[in-house]
Structures are given as structure tokens and as C-alpha cells.
């Protein structure tokens, strides 16, 4: 759900652009976006465009559908991607990793963003292995 802290992210997503909020005072990226910096509690934020590439920090493979609607999707990989352009500043995203053989994924694999246009209002980021 979009709110004041996350609306710029979703607006950029509809244009296939990845942006992330960075604390103006200390430079820490705030992901997921929130009203305060978790390092210095500043409210001042700037939105920074990122290249949309990164590496797999950790992941899991889901093999059992937790809901009948998910049965066609299994097995699928869900992971945490560390975003290029942000190392050392805590910018990681929890995403699904698609267009891959889930049994060949490894931590540290390079990945790139794929924008999934779910409907007119909703575009959600996913990642796939970088070739
Ligand atoms: Zn800060």
C-alpha cells in the first residue's frame, strides 16, 4: 500500500524507474521507506535513482503453496537483493526472483530488475538473473 513515505517509489515504478530514499543528514538509504531515518531519526530525505542491478544477499525456494491460488507458481524463489549503488548503506529489497531455474540460484549471483505491470495503478519490482 502506498502512503506519503512510499508514493514516490510507486510513481517511479510505473515509469520502470527504481528510486530509493536516502537520508540527507547521514546518507543512509531507507528501505523499506519510512518517515524517519533509522540511523539518525532525521525526517529529511532525497530520492536517488538506482541502476536496478544488484546481487542476491539471501534467498529461499518456496515449494509448497500456502494458498491454493499460488499452486501454479511453485516452485518460486523469494530473496533479498542488495542493490548496486548503495553498498554499505543498508539498501536491500525483499523480492521474488523470476525467469530462473530455482535450483541453480546462489547467494552472490548478479541480478537485474524486471518491472511487472500488474494493472494500471500497480507496478511491482521483481528480479531475474543478469546474463
Ligand atoms: Zn540519517
Q: What gross morphology would you assign?
A: globular
Helix content: under 10%
Number of strands: 7
What is the CA-based Rg, rounded?
A: 15 Å
**Which strands sit side by side, in order, in the main sheet?**
5-4-3-6-7
Q: Alpha-carbon distance between the termini?
A: 32 Å
**Ligands, deduplicated:** zinc ion
Main sheet overview = 5 strands, antiparallel
Q: Which structural class do the helices and strands define? A: mainly beta
Instruction: Work out the helix count.
Output: 1
Q: What is the residue-mean pLDDT, rounded to a whole number?
A: 92
* SSE pattern, N- to C-terminal: HEEEEEEE
Question: Which features does this protein show?
Answer:
mainly beta; binds zinc ion; 5% helix; 131 residues; two-stranded antiparallel ribbon; 1 helix; five-stranded antiparallel beta sheet
Amino acid at each position: 500500500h502506498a502512503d506519503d513515505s512510499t508514493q514516490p517509489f510507486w510513481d517511479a515504478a510505473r515509469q520502470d524507474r527504481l528510486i530509493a530514499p536516502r537520508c540527507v543528514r547521514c546518507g543512509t538509504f531507507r528501505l523499506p521507506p519510512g518517515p524517519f531515518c533509522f540511523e539518525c531519526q532525521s525526517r529529511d530525505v532525497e530520492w536517488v535513482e538506482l541502476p536496478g542491478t544488484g546481487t542476491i544477499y539471501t534467498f529461499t525456494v518456496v515449494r509448497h503453496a500456502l494458498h491454493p491460488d499460488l499452486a501454479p507458481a511453485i516452485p518460486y524463489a523469494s530473496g533479498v537483493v542488495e542493490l548496486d549503488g548503495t553498498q554499505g548503506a543498508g539498501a536491500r529489497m525483499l523480492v521474488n526472483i523470476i525467469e530462473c531455474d530455482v535450483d541453480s540460484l546462489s547467494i552472490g549471483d548478479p541480478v537485474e530488475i524486471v518491472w511487472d505491470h500488474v494493472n494500471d495503478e500497480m507496478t511491482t519490482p521483481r528480479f531475474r538473473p543478469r546474463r
